[in-house]
């Protein structure tokens, strides 16, 4: 009998979220997973900061909880979209969830009776036209994340281990390169404030740091870069991010001004869809360029790789799986990159969340962004993670490890209370 969609279900979060981790391998083979409920809500990430383009004081995100039953035990999967694109709960509620609950759920199970996120993705994306990658991609990313969390928990493994076994010939990274997204423009923040922020990141174990540019004059941003360099020591330890603020002439002028620093990368100098301008910039700016966080599909990336002039030996691609139709679609993005002759090591997922970290570990991308100081509690990693010289070990807990970040787990409970 089909499960019925109950949109007003109120989740009970006081149960032990890990109570289901007691199956034997023989038991797993005898179960069939059922969806009990799915709920989505809007959450705020109150951050009084700005980059070159937007202010985050009113930013919202979508949070998703999938409640599933497997062998008489409850499994909860958690998902959310990354910062920067606002909540998309209505798309999830009005389009995606009815398609799931009106389908034959027996057809979205794997050989062990576990809900297969890739089959679920195909189900909720049916009857959607090609193109239009934006808000829909963000909604799909949040929902897909929750189903991958359920899937890994059903197999009692961290998600990165599942990805390693199923999609990467059992290869994985024991240490993942991470860098903090920081250096935002704060009210009243001067050079000393920027230096203090960077010193805190270094105290936390980070080595390569990132700061925002493009929100002030070139001369002022150069002074801010000099302040940052006085802390990080050399250009290869500093990234700058213009958040697609510049037109071509501005991007070229800024590139000329910073070229001698030989920075780790010059991020999002241009609108991500302006492929010709990227190609012109890449001919003139010798050090690394990083971009792609505002492309939301493999189709947009395909055009960037074809026409954007990016160089596979030095440039970086930063699509965010939580904004780009989820991990299910990100697996296709990796295939696309490698078909173009790029190494997956040139991929560093944007977003600074547990999903990106699990992807970096299990699929061996180039690393992961982190948000230790902003977009809390959704930014950053689990409580007991230790960062050493800019590298971090993946979690051992099943799933994404959301429960291991106490402020995030408590926030999710609060959102659905």
What does the model show?
This protein is of the alpha/beta class and 417 residues long. It has two domains: 25-156, 2-Layer Sandwich (Enolase-like, domain 1), CATH 3.30.390.10; 164-406, TIM Barrel (Alpha-Beta Barrel). 35% of the residues lie in helices and 14% in strands. The protein contains 13 helices and twelve strands. The protein has a five-stranded parallel β-sheet with strand order 5-6-7-8-9. α8 (248-258) packs parallel to α9 (275-284). The longest helix is centred in the middle third of the chain and has 20 residues, at 135-154.
**Low-pLDDT runs:** 1-30
The count of β-strands is 12
Q: Summarize the helix and strand pattern as letters.
A: HEEEHHHHEHEHEHEHEHEHHEEEH
Tell me the major beta sheet: 5 strands, parallel
Write the layout of secondary structure elements.
Layout: H1 25-28, E1 34-44, E2 60-70, E3 73-80, H2 89-101, H3 117-124, H4 135-154, H5 159-167, E4 176-180, H6 191-203, E5 209-212, H7 218-232, E6 238-241, H8 248-258, E7 265-267, H9 275-284, E8 289-291, H10 298-307, E9 316-317, H11 326-339, H12 354-363, E10 368-370, E11 387-388, E12 391-392, H13 406-415
Parallel strand pairs: 4-10, 5-6, 6-7, 7-8, 8-9
Antiparallel strand pairs: 1-2, 2-3, 4-12, 11-12
Helix pairs in contact: 2-4, 3-4, 5-12, 6-7, 8-9, 10-11
């Amino acid at each position: 009998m089909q499960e019925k969609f109950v949109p007003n279900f109120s989740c009970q979060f006081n149960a032990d979220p890990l109570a289901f981790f007691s199956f034997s391998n023989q038991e797993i083979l005898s179960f069939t997973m059922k969806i009990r409920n799915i709920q989505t809500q809007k959450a705020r990430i109150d951050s009084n900061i700005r980059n070159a383009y937007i202010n985050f004081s009113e930013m919202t995100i979508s949070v998703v909880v999938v409640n599933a039953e497997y062998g008489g035990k409850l499994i909860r999967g958690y998902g959310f979209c990354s910062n920067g694109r606002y909540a998309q709960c209505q798309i999830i509620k009005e389009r995606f969830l009815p398609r799931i609950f009106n389908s034959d759920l027996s057809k979205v199970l794997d050989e062990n009776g576990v809900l297969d996120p890739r089959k679920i993705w195909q189900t909720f994306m049916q009857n959607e036209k090609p193109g239009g990658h934006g808000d829909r991609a963000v909604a799909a990313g949040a929902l897909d994340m929750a189903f991958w969390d359920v899937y890994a928990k059903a197999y009692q493994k961290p998600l990165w281990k599942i990805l390693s076994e199923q999609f990467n010939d059992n290869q994985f990274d024991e240490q993942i390169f991470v860098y903090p997204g920081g250096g935002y423009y704060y009210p009243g923040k001067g050079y000393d404030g920027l230096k203090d922020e960077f010193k805190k990141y270094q105290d936390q174990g980070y080595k390569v740091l990132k700061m925002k540019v493009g929100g002030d004059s070139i001369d002022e941003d150069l002074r801010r870069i000099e302040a940052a360099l006085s802390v990080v020591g050399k250009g290869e330890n500093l990234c700058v991010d213009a958040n697609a603020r510049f037109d071509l002439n501005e991007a070229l002028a800024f590139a000329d001004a910073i070229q001698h620093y030989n920075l780790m990368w010059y991020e999002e100098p241009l609108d991500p869809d302006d492929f010709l301008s990227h190609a012109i910039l890449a001919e003139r700016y010798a050090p690394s360029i990083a971009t792609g966080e505002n492309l939301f599909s493999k189709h947009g990336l395909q055009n960037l790789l074809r026409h954007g002039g990016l160089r596979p030996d030095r440039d970086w691609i930063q699509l965010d799986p939580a904004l780009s139709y989820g991990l299910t679609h990100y697996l296709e993005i990796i295939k696309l990159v490698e078909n173009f002759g790029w190494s997956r090591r040139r991929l560093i997922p944007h977003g600074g969340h547990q999903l990106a970290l699990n992807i970096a570990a299990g699929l061996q991308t180039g690393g992961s962004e982190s948000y230790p100081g902003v977009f809390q509690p959704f930014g950053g990693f689990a409580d007991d993670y230790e960062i050493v010289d800019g590298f971090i070990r993946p979690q051992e807990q099943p799933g994404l490890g959301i429960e291991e970040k106490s402020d995030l787990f408590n926030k999710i409970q609060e959102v659905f209370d």
